[in-house]
Design goal:
binds zinc ion; 10 helices; three-stranded mixed beta sheet; alpha+beta; single chain; 2 domains; about 325 residues
C-alpha cells in the first residue's frame, strides 16, 4: 500500500530530515530491507522491489538503490522521470541479500539511463535528463568530483594553457548538429572530449559575445549570464562559427578549467533573434549588417521545423556564399 512505501521524504533524494528521525518515525522504519521500498536495475533501468530480481534481466540482476554521492535517489521518482515501469512490491516479498543494496551512480551514468531507450527523440532525451538533473541535490559534495572540462586532461602533460583545437568540441559540419553528430557513440561521439557534454563554446544571449560554455560572460559580468548553446529548432548551432560570422572573437577556453557539473541549458533561438544579434553592434553599417545576417542565416539548417524554409518564402533569404571559408 502507498502509505507503506518507503522513500525519501522530498521524493527526490535522502536529506538530513530522513536521517535524523529515528525509531517509528525513521523513514526506513517500515522497511526491513533498511532501504527504500523500490530500487532500479542498473542494466535496463526498470524499477521494482529493492534487492529482488529484475523482471527483465533476470539471473542475479537485482533492483538496487542508486546512491549519488552521499545521498540515495528516490527510485520511484527515477522511474517516473525515465518513464519506466515499476514492478509493485508484494506484501510478502523476500529479498536477495547477496548484492550490495546501493549502487553508486554519477551524472554520466544517469545519462546512460536516459540514453537506454533508443526510440526517444533528442529533445525528449534532453527534457528527461533535465528532469533527472533537477532531482539531484544541490550540495556540491554530493556531486561526483569536480571535473576538468577536457576528458583525460592531465595538467603536466597537456602542454598548452588554452584548449587545443583537437579538443574543441563542436558540430561536425561547423554549422549545426546533424544526425552525423548524434549517430556515433563512445569515443567517436562528438561530445566525448567534453565533460560538459556540450560544445566547448557558447554565446551570451544579451551581448552576443562567445566563450567557454557555462562560463560567466566577460562583458555582462553578472551571475547567471553565461555563455549558452544556441538551439535553432531541434539542432544546436556551432558557437564558434556563430562568433566568427558576427565578426566577434571567441573567449578561449582554458585547458585546466574545472567544470562545475550543471548541464548547460540550451537557449532556443529564432531568425528574428539572430537579427537582434546582428543589430547589437550599433557601430556597423547597414551594408555590414546585411552581410553578417546573411552569413548567420547561411549556417542554419534547411530541414529543421521548416523555420528557414518559411523565412525564405518571405523573401528574407540569403544568397548562396562559398563554403571554402575556414571556420
Ligand atoms: Zn534489468
Ligand atoms: Zn554578455
Amino acid at each position: 500500500m502507498d502509505e507503506d512505501v518507503v522513500r525519501p521524504s522530498n521524493h527526490q533524494y535522502t536529506t538530513k530530515e530522513d536521517r535524523v528521525e529515528r525509531g517509528y518515525n525513521n523513514w526506513l522504519y517500515k522497511s526491513n530491507a533498511g532501504h527504500q521500498t523500490y530500487g532500479t536495475c542498473d542494466i535496463c533501468f526498470d524499477s521494482g522491489p529493492v534487492m529482488t530480481i529484475c523482471r527483465k534481466c533476470e539471473h542475479d540482476q537485482v533492483y538496487q538503490v542508486f546512491q549519488f554521492g552521499e545521498v540515495e535517489l528516490d527510485s520511484t521518482t527515477l522511474a517516473n522521470i525515465l518513464e519506466r515501469g515499476l514492478k509493485v512490491q508484494y506484501a510478502c516479498q523476500q529479498y536477495n541479500w547477496e548484492r550490495a543494496p546501493t549502487r553508486p551512480v554519477t551524472v554520466k551514468f544517469l545519462q546512460v539511463a536516459v540514453g537506454y531507450a533508443r526510440i526517444l527523440t533528442e529533445e525528449k532525451r534532453e527534457q528527461m535528463f533535465n528532469n533527472l538533473y533537477d532531482m539531484l541535490p544541490p550540495d556540491p559534495r554530493c556531486w561526483s568530483t569536480k571535473k576538468y572540462i577536457i576528458r583525460d586532461y592531465h595538467p603536466s602533460t597537456y602542454e598548452s594553457e588554452y584548449i587545443k583545437d583537437k579538443d574543441v568540441v563542436r558540430p561536425f559540419n561547423h554549422k549545426y548538429t546533424t544526425s552525423k553528430d548524434w549517430g556515433n557513440r563512445g569515443v567517436d561521439h562528438w561530445l566525448y572530449r567534453s565533460m560538459a557534454m556540450h560544445q566547448t563554446y557558447g554565446t551570451c544571449d544579451t551581448c552576443f559575445d562567445s566563450g567557454p560554455v557555462m562560463a560567466e560572460c566577460r562583458f555582462c559580468n553578472k551571475e547567471e549570464q553565461v555563455y549558452q548553446v544556441f538551439m535553432f529548432g531541434n539542432v544546436e548551432l556551432d558557437s564558434s562559427t556563430f562568433a566568427k560570422r558576427l565578426g566577434r572573437e571567441v573567449l578561449q577556453q582554458e585547458a585546466n578549467r574545472e567544470f562545475y557539473w550543471k548541464p548547460p541549458k540550451a537557449r532556443s533561438v529564432t531568425v528574428p533573434f539572430l537579427q537582434t544579434a546582428v543589430g547589437f553592434d550599433r557601430s556597423i553599417t547597414e551594408k555590414e549588417r546585411e552581410v553578417f545576417f546573411n552569413n548567420l542565416y547561411e549556417m542554419l539548417p534547411t530541414d529543421t521545423l521548416g523555420n528557414k524554409a518559411l523565412v525564405e518564402e518571405e523573401g528574407m533569404g540569403s544568397e548562396k556564399e562559398s563554403d571554402s571559408e575556414d571556420e
